[in-house]
Amino acid sequence: MDKDYSDNLAEANNYSPLQTVAGCVCPCQTTVVEATPPRNLIGIKFRPEGKTYTFLAGDHELKKDELVLVDTENGLSMGKVVTETFSLSPGKMPPNLKPVVRIASDEDLKTQASNKKLEDDAAALFKEKVRLRGLPMKLVDVDCLFDRSKLLFYFSSESRVDFRELVKDLVQKYRIKIELRQIGARHEARIIKGMGICGREVCCAVLHRNNDRVSVKMAKEQNMSLNPEKISGLCGRLMCCLGYEYETYVELKRTMPKCNKIVNTPQGRGKVVRQNILTGEATVQLEDGKDVIVSFKDIAIAGPCCGREG
Questions:
Q1: Which residues, 6+ apart, have CB-to-CB distance to 185 below 8 Å?
Q2: Are 179 and 150 in contact (CB under 8 A)?
Q3: Tell me: the pLDDT tens digits for 168-177?
Q4: pTM of this prediction?
């Protein structure tokens, strides 16, 4: 069957030859593929300082700051809606999304309050047992799953700890699954929170979400003092905010004359001694020893004909 005839046949029978079986274009063999409509999604947090997770909103009419129950790998969990409902086409959706089960009811809120009381009691017992057993552990937080199937204890320690006997004490008391998780200094600061040297709440708790490595190189690129007291956060590690503008500084510096570079300026020839990335200016020491501040756009790199660079 040639193409012209198949096109005429499809048009005559009001069919679209979208998909055929074994090359046949007979109307009875044609399969019509319907586009999958976009799915409604919602962003939910389980902790104020935690990550935002995406769930399927379904037909629920959800509002920001509303408490909902969602299906997770650990069973039912209560979280807070932190975004408006949004839609994505099937091709752009993250895989294996879980659904929102329901909006939290009064009974669910009572269960959550009861779980909070259990967390407080468990925290007190944990601290007591740690003290009695002389374990080098600092409790940071306790989390009880909504269905009370598991208690999670987050702690920090300078070294590895053998806490097997401690787990036995907790299991004997609560008769549920117990899990202990050792966390790092940054994670601890994110949970406990506090005020940074800038006068604002630490950004790891309210702004910064990724766990990319922060290095001294980032401070150097931004011309910051390498005094540990000035570039360290409450956790004792390099401040997370050093990573905020690092890429911008690197990108801008690629088009700017480096320090010690010989350049030509409207005031004469000289050497770059300082850069100010934020203002787009450089301090140039002229040949007569005078320092002048010049905009980067008014600076030209001195060529070989101007003599050797200093």
A1: 156, 235, 236, 237
A2: yes
A3: 999 999 999 9
A4: 0.67
